[in-house]
Amino acid sequence: MTAKSAAAAARSTVYGYPRQGQGRELKKAVEGYWKGRVDADALRTTAAELRRTNWRHLTDAGIHEVPTGDFSYYDHVLDTSVMVGAIPARHRAAVELDALDGYFAMARGTQDVAPLEMTKWFDTNYHYLVPELGPDTVFTADSTKQVSELKEALALSLTARPVLVGPITYLLLAKPAPGVAADFEPLTLLDRLLPVYAEVLADLRAAGAEWVQLDEPALVQDRTRAELNATLRAYRELGGLTDRPRILVASYFDRLGEALHVLAKAPVEGLALDFTGAAAANLDDLAAAGGLPGKRLVAGVVDGRNVWVDDLTKSLATLGTLLGLAKRVDVAASCSLLHVPLDAAAERDIEPQILRWLAFARQKTAEIVTLAKGLAQGTDTIAAELAANRADLASRAGSALTRDPAVRARAAAVTDADARRSQPYDERTTAQRARLGLPPLPTTTIGSFPQTAELRTARADLRARRIDAAGYEERIRAEIQEVIAFQEKTGLDVLVHGEPERDDMVQYFAERLTGYLATRHGWVQSYGTRYVRPPILAGDISRPEPMTVRWTTYAQSLTGRPVKGMLTGPVTMLAWSFVRDDQPLGDTARQVALALRDEVNDLEAAGTSVIQVDEPALRETLPLRAADREAYLAWATEAFRLTTAGVRPETQIHTHMCYAEFGDIVRAIDDLDADVISLEAARSHMQVARELAEHGYPREAGPGVYDIHSPRVPSAEEAAALLRRGLEAIPAERLWVNPDCGLKTRGWPETRASLENLVAAARTVRTEPAGS
After folding, report:
1. Closest residue by Cα to residue 109 from 128, 94, 131
2. What is the pTM of this model?
3. Which of 468-482, 659-673, 695-709 has the lowest mean pLDDT?
4. Which of 339, 521, 654, 709 is an active site residue?
5. Which of 18, 30, 232, 233 is the most buried (most CB within 10 A)?
């Protein structure tokens, strides 16, 4: 096929779409099911309606081929575990009794059974459930979900393509099951897994699938020769099947590198590649590999992870170059649109001209359709769209919102000394212990307490003007009083004010800093039914006035115990926002750090003795390729130190991280120079404590003993057992006792019981002889 005929054949597609619905109907239905207000049939009906609505929006917009199987009640990796029968032994009875309840038990746990571990999906803020595998794992195919959702789409006369997590990525994301040797490699199960994928592919073909997409994002990471050989073997076997649909192997988030050559040789009919950001290198790599003769190429030229309008002219140029490299070139976003909000048109509070700079899932879908039309029919057919796009890009580039000379001058004047504490840790810790007077194994929480219905009602009442600011603040004061009184009664050593005034740990600060845009309906799934509204970082950042000092000092006035000041760190402020793409991330991080530094200094001046600057996204934002990591960690750790280094030695600086692979960044954690770090550890059975010890981490640490992403209440004995495991790696004088993360999503009954058990566990272990 010539380039001209390849262009004429160009069609549009997406890999996935936001699941929640315009009004977060899925969240409400699932949580209603958990609470017994919605039955299983009603939940399934809501899910089916949401799928149909998504497909209707896509087809009405002009998308030629819709995805199926991307919808999930909780997580698509968990769906894959169900599809291949990788059900942990502790969950099998629940799954056999009721498949839906068993599914949610794997995701959330029960009072008697722990859930699967949860961690970040590559370098995004989406969390997936980690498969647990071992040498005794037996895979069995269950394609019920995949087949039924395909049939739903075909019944609507749609061209549909099932999307599955590929076998290589699935195994590389897995971990050894509890009780299995830590050095077990799940990839050794590939030959056992491939026949199950073959059976699923056959089932999908029988149901009417012409194409199936197998997602292999793990291949954009640095892979060993053995892993690449396993990939070649897997796709030779799957490609060699006769009873299957055509296979489209998809990767995204970065360049494929060596894996591109492997997949180009595989007997599959198509590849889907990311051509945005760092993955733009795929273009040169593809040309160097000789292209994809005879194959379909799905070109991800529209950024599926950020919210800025696409440069259509630039994307058309990329597509034009790709035309000579494949039999057929189709147009798509760089990855699933799961990672962006649904519809920018719903935002009524953003100035209309600025709104034109933004593209959420529906707007990105329109961009994809426009590009496909221009590629197939010529740019004259989209001349109006191109002209409007150029005007929008020019408007943003020339806006005063994007540049503040004072902010840029301050950032340019930063020196190395500005990002260093005045004394080393060994000297600081002596001053801090004398000031705080804490017992061994001090207890604390991460920051937030339950966001009750009363708090949500108070915010809604304030927005609707049913109460005034004074009435709202009265409710906040009452909530802080209750949180402080509970912590004192329970016996916690370092307290928090509970953050009742904060709807979200990033949005709260974004609304008080210049340069940010906040959305009303820009919900994005973080995990399960947890949705967040990432703010949009559009311009230069500064802090007009203090943001947290008032409520922190009020809480401190209620108690003689230390109350932590609570801030979100600069890297997390970037990672959990949609960042500007017109300057290096490190430059933006420095601006945010300087704004937060002002807040830290004001907290200290107000008498706050412990200040926590959370950086849960430090690992999440780590580049997928090792070659890019040193530069990232240099500016990321500098930004944290720039935020915190201005305080006196006796002021104790804490940080917090959760739900990530910390072993990859232990050296960077050390480079933060925080006095205390709290980390997720309950689901991973204190793995991070061992990693810190292996590194020789010299500071204080609080590996969590209470998994807050599950409704179950850990007993005092369970928490004590985890503490003892922590003490095997970290000496008692440097070990803190805390939950894995904030308590915002939990209810008060389970929070009270869990924290009472946590304090009881700390008291028990304090009395035990060292090394017992």
Report:
1. 94
2. 0.91
3. 659-673
4. 709
5. 18
